[in-house]
């Protein structure tokens, strides 16, 4: 008599655990020319709830892409680029917000960050409308491009909701901060659905909300800045923070005996040449982290840390020394590196 009751109880219990919805799921997809992923933690992750989350993230990212992609000829930014006039051009609130962050970082970085750099990016063989990489651009091409590059040549009127060009040929490229903005929007969308614990990432830029499974900050890797394979340099804990990384190690080619990366120093009109391999920045919002990571990449290992400290930014710089070893510099706002898988020859991080 006892055995059947025990068996029935066991079956019921195992059935319950089998049917109980998971407490953590990982979602993945593609948008904004890259991949995205979300780790979602909640007690009630039923199928409909997961579907809701996936759709919200997808819509948030696709909306940003549709407004800001330079690959899409119908995007708002492509239409702004094609608008060869000094008449005011009306823009949506999200695009104005991203441009406003861009202009603030441009001014505070002394023009190292500059979203009007697009013609130079294309001349050096990167982005939409790029020419085939090979010979360096001629002096005449660089002079012509420089005439339409410069963040002060783009005026925003946030109250009127318009942008105005001071030179007709001016073109904008938001690649340096649009992904960060997309992550912020995706995080907002998940929050609006009632999720409180998640990690959302688009092409390496991320936002962490709440806590990881088991409690405590989400653990996020800082990559080793190497073009081949993926290896972890260190791990940081993030809680209600965003982190973005910029570097020369993923998008570059070699020509004329040098490494040409997609990050252009508007002050020299050429790809950055210093030994900085990557910069990671933490911030309250990913759009600021993303813009500053690119700005500090341009500023490099000498100027960058000073500017990061002046701006109160948590930043982590990894550079290649002349001996091929990595050198790291962390400013005080950057989370402690929790664990470092160190290869022989590396310098230990400063906080170890
Ligand atoms: P990220 O990967 O966020 O550092 O962004 C790099 C992208 O931003 C490049 O592929 C270019 O499209 C664009 N870019 C390059 N140089 C600059 C710069 N100095 N300021 C702003 N955007 C830039
Ligand atoms: Mg960036």
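Q: What amino acid sequence fits the structure above?
A:
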């Amino acid at each position: 008599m006892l055995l059947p009751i025990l068996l029935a109880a066991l079956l019921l219990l195992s059935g319950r655990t089998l049917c109980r919805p998971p407490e953590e799921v990982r979602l993945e997809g593609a948008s904004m020319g890259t991949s995205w992923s979300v780790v979602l933690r909640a007690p009630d992750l039923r199928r409909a709830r997961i579907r809701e989350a996936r759709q919200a993230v997808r819509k948030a990212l696709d909306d940003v892409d549709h407004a800001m992609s330079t690959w899409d000829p119908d995007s708002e930014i492509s239409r702004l680029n094609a608008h060869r006039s000094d008449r005011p051009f009306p823009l949506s609130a999200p695009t104005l917000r991203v441009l406003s962050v861009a202009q603030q970082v441009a001014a505070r970085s002394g023009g190292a960050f500059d979203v009007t750099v697009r013609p130079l990016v294309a001349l050096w063989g990167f982005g939409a409308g790029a020419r085939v990489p090979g010979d360096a651009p001629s002096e005449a091409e660089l002079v012509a491009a420089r005439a339409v590059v410069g963040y002060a040549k783009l005026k925003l009127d946030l109250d009127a909701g318009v942008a105005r060009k001071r030179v007709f040929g001016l073109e904008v490229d938001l690649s340096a901060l649009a992904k960060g903005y997309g992550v912020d929007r995706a995080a907002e969308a998940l929050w609006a659905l009632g999720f409180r614990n998640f990690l959302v990432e688009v092409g390496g830029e991320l936002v962490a909300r709440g806590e990881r499974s088991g409690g405590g900050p989400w653990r996020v890797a800082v990559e080793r800045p190497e073009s081949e394979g993926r290896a972890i340099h260190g791990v940081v804990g993030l809680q209600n923070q965003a982190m973005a990384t910029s570097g020369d190690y993923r998008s570059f080619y070699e020509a004329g005996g040098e490494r040409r990366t997609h990050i252009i120093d508007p002050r020299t009109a050429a790809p950055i040449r210093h030994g900085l391999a990557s910069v990671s920045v933490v911030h309250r919002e990913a759009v600021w982290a993303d813009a500053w990571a690119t700005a500090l990449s341009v500023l490099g290992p000498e100027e960058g840390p000073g500017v990061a400290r002046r701006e109160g930014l948590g930043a982590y710089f990894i550079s290649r020394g002349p001996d091929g070893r990595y050198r790291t510099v962390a400013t005080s706002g950057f989370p402690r590196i929790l664990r470092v898988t160190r290869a022989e020859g590396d310098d230990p991080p400063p906080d170890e």
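Q: And what stands out in the fold?
A: The pocket of adenosine monophosphate (ligand 1) is lined by residues 113-115, 117, 121, 126-127, 173, 175-176, 246, 262-264, 266, 290, 293-294, 297-298 (CB under 6 Å).
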